[in-house]
Design a protein that fits this description.
Number of helices: 10
Low-confidence stretches: 1-24, 216-236, 328-342
Strand content: 15-25%
CATH superfamily of one domain: Tetratricopeptide repeat domain
Distance between the termini: 70 Å
Radius of gyration: 29 Å
Strand order of the largest sheet: 3-2-5-6-11-10
Structural class: alpha+beta
Helix content: 40-55%
CATH architecture of one domain: Alpha Horseshoe
Shape: globular
Length: about 375
């Protein structure tokens, strides 16, 4: 009787102290992972690498395997994400070494060595003058560790957003379009400007609503129309002229990028047709290797240019249509003081290895 009572207790203690031992990989997990991998292979064969990579990622989560990680890395490479492929191969090499699998280990390390010269890197430099106590730097929405500031970090080709914030300061943001190839792009973080008009908290808004609008009676000496209280006429007949100009520049940059991206996409399609012509079934000539590399490069450049074009075109439209007009109502209890901080400042530039769109202010 004592033994029967002690067995359930022992089992509860065992499962609570060693949950990984009690709930490790099950046959159903391995079968599910295999089913996901088969579905991913079918999608990749059909050219749908985005969904195929997703299936392989889910498969690895169910049943981690060095072989599946190597296939996932190959899928990332076909999508032009060479940095992600390189990192995934590193995971495969570590797993194969830990499990004593020499063949996958050699394959992963050889593929890593092949990809290394093609990886682009991004270095974010935060000078001492720009380092604040609560400064936060994010890349694509993820906070960057302090230890990574100033170090070249491998990144995939395509758009990347660097955002810098700190309490009481205007936010600063730059969008970078990394071109394919072994380039290193440096981003220097500027000193964040002091926010002279910080956004109000919910408590402050509640107090202002309870206070009600401020009123002030004004009397004029005669019944004639009163003179203007502002003797200095506005030097700019259109308050949003500069912002609309920036919007048009961004939209023009977007259109140009879309044209360039379309040209690369057409070239990639032509190269793909040439590649298909050199292959008979699953047998290809030696020239197919060069054509395959050329198609990947053209596809990656097309994706980058099209992504930058769409972002710049959308940003230009937002900037243009959000510009104030002479009929726009004044907010904030009065006119802005001349020389004060603008709510939003934008800029754009194009270089050999990257294109950038910079924004600073409230957003």
């Amino acid at each position: 009787m004592l033994l029967r009572r002690s067995l359930p207790v022992a089992w509860v203690l065992l499962t609570s102290l060693f949950p990984r031992l009690a709930f490790s990989e099950t046959p159903s997990d391995r079968l599910g992972a295999e089913a996901l991998a088969e579905e991913g292979a079918k999608l990749m064969s059909a050219g749908d690498y985005e969904r195929g990579c997703k299936k392989y990622e889910e498969s690895v989560l169910l049943d981690e395997s060095a072989t599946r990680l190597i296939v996932l890395a190959a899928c990332h490479e076909r999508r032009g994400k060479v940095a992600s492929a390189w990192a995934t191969l590193g995971e495969a090499a570590e797993l194969a070494e830990a499990r004593g699998e020499p063949k996958p280990l050699a394959q992963a390390r050889a593929s890593q060595k092949r990809l290394e010269p093609t990886i682009g890197r991004l270095t974010i430099i935060v000078p001492d003058s720009a380092r604040l106590e609560d400064l936060v730097v994010t890349r694509d929405g993820a906070p960057m560790a302090y230890a990574l500031w100033g170090l070249p970090v491998s990144v995939d080709p395509g758009p990347h957003v660097i955002r810098v914030t700190a309490p009481g300061r205007l936010a600063w943001q730059v969008e970078i379009g990394m071109m394919p190839g072994p380039s290193t792009v440096l981003v220097r973080i500027p000193v964040l400007e002091v926010d002279s008009d910080p956004p109000r908290t919910d408590k402050e808004r509640s107090l202002l609503d309870r206070r009600g609008p401020m009123t002030q009676s004004v009397s004029f000496p005669s019944s004639t129309s009163p003179a203007s209280t502002d003797p200095t006429p506005s030097s700019d007949p259109s308050p949003g002229h500069m912002q609309r100009t920036v919007g048009l520049v961004l939209a023009g940059t977007g259109v140009a990028s879309l044209i360039i991206g379309s040209a690369f996409a057409i070239a990639a399609k032509s190269t793909h047709d040439d590649l298909a012509a050199t292959c008979t079934g699953n047998v290809c000539s030696a020239a197919a290797v060069a054509l395959l590399d050329q198609e990947r490069s053209q596809s990656a450049r097309a994706n980058v240019a099209l992504g930058i074009g769409l972002a710049a075109l959308a940003g230009g439209a937002v900037v243009y249509f959000s510009a104030p007009t002479s009929s726009s109502p004044q907010t904030g209890g009065g006119p802005r003081v001349a020389g004060g901080a603008d709510p939003l400042r934008l800029g754009a530039s194009v270089g050999p290895n990257a294109a950038t769109v910079v924004a600073s202010g409230h957003f």
